[in-house]
Amino acid sequence: MREKKMHVKNSYSDKIFDGVNVAVMIFLLIIFVWPLWFVVIASVSNPNEVWNGNVILLPKGFTLMAYEELMKYKMIWTGYRNTIFYTVVGTLVNLVVTICAAYPLSRKDFMPRNFFMFLFMLTMYFSGGLIPTYLVVNKVGLVNSPWAMIIPGACSIYNVIITRTYFINSIPSTLQDAAELDGANSFQYLMRVVLPLSKPIIAVIALYYAVGHWNDFYTALIYINKQEYMPLQSFLRDILMSNKMTLNDMQGLDAAATEARMRLAQTLKYSVIIVSTVPVLCIYPFIQKYFVKGVMIGSVKG
Question: Cα–Cα distance between 245 and 239 in angstroms, integer?
Answer without folding.
Answer: 6
